[in-house]
Amino acid sequence: MSAPVLPTSLIENPRLDRWIKFQADRTVRIATGKVEMGQGIVTAIGQIAAEELDVPLHRVAVLSGNTAHGPDELYTTSSLSVDVSGGSVRLVCAEVRAKALERAALRLNCSRDELTVVDGRFLQNGAATGQDYWTVAAEIDLTQNVTGATPPKPVASYKVVGQSIPRVDLPAKMSGAAFVHDVLPADVLHARTLRQPNRGATLASLDEAAIRRAAKGELQVVREANFVAFVSPVESVAQAAALAAPLHAKWDNLRRLIPEQQEAAWLKGQPSDDRHIGAPPPSKETGATPSKNLVQATFSRPYIAHASMAPSCALAEFRDGHLTVRSHGQGMHPLRQNLAAALGLPIEAITCQHLHGAGCYGHNGADDAALDAALIALRIPGRCIRLQWRREEEFGFEPVGPAMLVTLHVELDARGRPTDWTTEVWSPTHVQRPGNGTGYLLAAEAMATPPPEVAPFDPTEQRGGGGTRNALPIYDVPAHRIVHHLVLRPPVRTSALRGLGALPNVFAIESLIDDLAARIGEDPVAYRLSILSEARARRLVELVAERADWKSRGPAGTGKGFGIGFARYKNRAAYAAVVAAVTVQETVKVDRIWCVADAGLVVNPDGARNQLEGGIVQAVSWTLKEQVRLDEQGIASRDWESYPILRFSEVPDMQVEFVDPAGNAALGVGECTVGPTAAAIGNAVNHALGVRIHDMPLTRERIMAALLKA
């Protein structure tokens, strides 16, 4: 019999005591390396543990993102937390439950089969025994490695998993007590920075006297090469210094950008690392005339910001040779490793703890702020340093979501169905996270000896891809391939943002599917079903069309539009089908969204539904409004006026539901709605206008240009 296949997190963290501990207050501590970013993972992990151990949920305490006590699960990304971390916790708890029952049976001198667990207590043939997890915990060897050989409980017996349990992180957030920004130790010093404008820029001069006059209070200036920070016991003093500093600093080796670089079209023709993935290209005779059945179309998305509601913040304290950092980054163990490398400290001299931030699905400035705080803490030991970025700093210096240009080349058969499909993608890298060879913490580049530049690369297809994520259609196409142009020198720093390349790729594919249906006069839903054989996928397309009353869809060009979008995230995670109803006048207004999703087993339906809705709202904002603007110095859109996002008054009515899991395993749900929502809106606008807009965001200017061109 072959050994069980363990989740990656258990392979890397096999000891039971990294995951579970029975505590003196009669709670069980479950540790996870995944962190809470508003997706409800801490609540879901608690539910999984309570289910497997048969303990009341209030006796489960989840420790999240703590390098001193929890497992190293790298970053919280890619909709993998319930699958990988939840799957690990399920196996650990099943194994510990079995070990505890064995110890109880020895104590009671009875057969293991006579025992059951109810609310953490062990019953013998239904009668109380006076034994529970906590009475036998000391006899369980948790230093052993997990085997994965103990089968978890059958889904049919679940009582906690599958229930809409209120999220445990919300009460503290509602009262303002949970966020890293609100932690104010008695001896705290506030810090702000003067940012190096770009890699390679050198600080020629800094008028500290003028900055001190502007700050009007006690101020300490910390400078190391091209890194400058302003530190004060009074936050407003540090803030005033940071605001004044750019006026009194002179830099050499400044870069110069051109406005054209902010558009995805600029990427085409730039130096790139090219890959061909999938079927070989179709053979074509030299000099042959282009096929009449070849359809080509190009779509694009611009650079977009993470646009977190609060700027990045971190707390750092260096005391007695040990550095403690509290951060809202997405991975505390990687942050610890990256800080050790940047600061030249042994990794054992650093502890990183996660605190809540204002929400960010992707690689924003959180880790960079942590290094900023740590650099200052090393210079001012024994004091807690609270380093917060300014709003213009957050917009101007965080990594942004890459612009993408997507060209589709599709051969059709005599019935207008695709027989050969090529998705050609131009995109900068979608991952410059430090520590894995793709990038560095920002302040490291301002040091006297900055680390060497790294050659960009993207996540592999085995990890879901970056620019290639969802680049292959889920539809029945006999031959398909991806041509990926990884652009080597984009004008701005890019990295992971919710969904990576899935949104522009799904937007492109689903837009073209609608256009192929129109080409032969078929309904878009019927056309999709004619080339979609997978039962789970067909079910969603049919259901969302039914929920939205697709049959009532009127003619094109009336200013009112109905559009559909469908995808399976990464072609292996959760499925989502979305219909959007829009009104197009001077701008696009999304009136209503219908969504039907298949995520297999859903641990917390209400929390998962929130994820679908959040993805929809963010996708509406990206599709209609968001674009990073550049000037010759870099990112120019540095406030909410120059970088508008969707307002509360613009959020559409939403009808969101999950289909029955039908015995299927849990699938990652956090990012599955963004691509289908963008595609549904694009198709609805096309239906409303009778004209296709190929480039996001779908602004008034682009609508007018498309209408004039038509």
Plain-language structure description:
This protein is of the alpha+beta class. The chain has 3 domains: 8-166, Aldehyde oxidase/xanthine dehydrogenase, molybdopterin binding domain (Aldehyde Oxidoreductase, domain 4, 2-Layer Sandwich); 180-253 and 306-397, Aldehyde oxidase/xanthine dehydrogenase, molybdopterin binding domain (Aldehyde Oxidoreductase, domain 4); 404-430 and 465-709, Aldehyde oxidase/xanthine dehydrogenase, molybdopterin binding domain (Aldehyde Oxidoreductase, domain 4), CATH 3.30.365. The protein contains 16 helices and 26 strands. It has a 7-stranded mixed beta sheet, sandwiched between helices. Helix 2 packs parallel to helix 3 and helix 6 (208-215) packs across helix 7. The protein is globular, with a radius of gyration of 27 Å.
- Give the name of the CATH architecture of the largest domain: 2-Layer Sandwich
* Low-pLDDT regions: none
Strand-residue proportion: 15-25%
The overall average pLDDT, rounded, is 95
| Beta strand count | 26
The CATH topology of the largest domain corresponds to: Aldehyde Oxidoreductase, domain 4
Helix coverage percent: 25-40%
Number of domains: 3
The coarse overall form would be: globular
Rg calculated over all Cα atoms? 27 Å
In CATH terms, the superfamily of the largest domain is Aldehyde oxidase/xanthine dehydrogenase, molybdopterin binding domain
- Give the strand order of the largest sheet, numbering strands 1, 2, ... along the chain: 9-10-7-17-14-15-16
Classify the secondary structure makeup into a structural class.
Answer: alpha+beta
Task: Please tally the helical runs, counting DSSP H or I stretches of 4 or more residues.
Answer: 16
CATH class of the largest domain: Alpha Beta
Q: How many angstroms does the end-to-end distance come to?
A: 65 Å
Characterize the largest beta sheet: strand count, sense, and whether it forms a barrel: 7 strands, mixed
